[in-house]
Amino acid sequence: SQTIHQWPATLVQPVGSPLSLECTVEGTSNPNLYWYRQAAGRGLQLLFYSVGIGQISSEVPQNLSASRPQDRQFILSSKKLLLSDSGFYLCAWSRKDRDGQPQHFGDGTRLSIL
Amino acid sequence: GESVGLHLPTLSVQEGDNSIINCAYSNSASDYFIWYKQESGKGPQFIIDIRSNMDKRQGQRVTVLLNKTVKHLSLQIAATQPGDSAVYFCAENRGGDTGRRALTFGSGTRLQVQP
Fold first, then answer.
1. Could you tell me which of A35, A55, B25, B74 has the fewest CB atoms within 10 Å of its CB?
2. Is the pLDDT of residue B46 over 60?
């Protein structure tokens, strides 16, 4: 069966510090990978998606970047965090299918910026 | 955990009753729909999906209904249990290339099950 892991579960960082959140998927190959952010009381906002190694598409302009160094590894980064980067960050994967496939989510990282 | 759903609409039901959660979607080009359940501090969990060539699909204790005419989606939960308490999101997905298939999420509904 497929599993998705995110870490860390919680993170407290000062403004201006760097960020690296990691997500790995097991039990599947060549997945689509996604990073979402969820503000309290809101739905999910897509930040980045990737269809393959080294292929990253950004959905919204922001202070963050993403990388996919390996097929099942997706990393969310920032060089200098802002207060507005606080939130709940979720990684997801899906199979490739023109007709649509569900996305499966990790348990997220709660990021607090001080 | 993450305080999801601070300002969400809330549906309160008695244990054992049936629950109906509604969702309106906006994109008439959407052809694939998903319901997710999110518990506090966790990621959304897939419940059930439906494609636009169907109007009803049943799972274990759950049924999704799709009305494309009015762009409305509903999730019915039979014999609601305390463990069903969570925030429920609908998501829609547009047709397109095999790569993106990004989901657009609704704002969510909090389901509270009273014992």
1. A55
2. yes
- The predicted model gives B49-57 an average pLDDT of 94
Q: What are phi and psi of A23, to 5 degrees?
A: -140, 130
Is B43 close to A96, i.e. CB distance below 8 A? no
Q: Is A83 helix (H, G, I), strand (E, B) or coil?
A: helix
Does pLDDT of B89 surpass 70? Answer: yes
The partner residue sitting opposite A102, judged by closest CB among B6, B49, B96, is B49
What is the percent of chain A with per-residue pLDDT over 90, rounded to a whole number? 78
Distance in angstroms (rounded) separating the CA atoms of residues B40 and B5: 9
What residues contact residue B76 under an 8 Å CB cut-off, 6+ apart?
B18, B19, B20, B21, B62, B63, B64, B65
CB atoms within 10 A of CB B61: 14
Residue B102: what pLDDT?
Answer: 73
Give the distance from residue A71's alpha carbon to the nearest chain B alpha carbon, in angstroms. Answer: 14
Q: How far are the Cα atoms of B31, B57, B65, B68, B111 from residue B54, in angstroms, in the given order? A: 10, 7, 9, 10, 26
Cα–Cα dist A37/A40, whole Å: 10
Using CA atoms, how far residue B22 sits from A36, A100, B3, B48, B93, in Å, is: 23, 21, 22, 14, 17
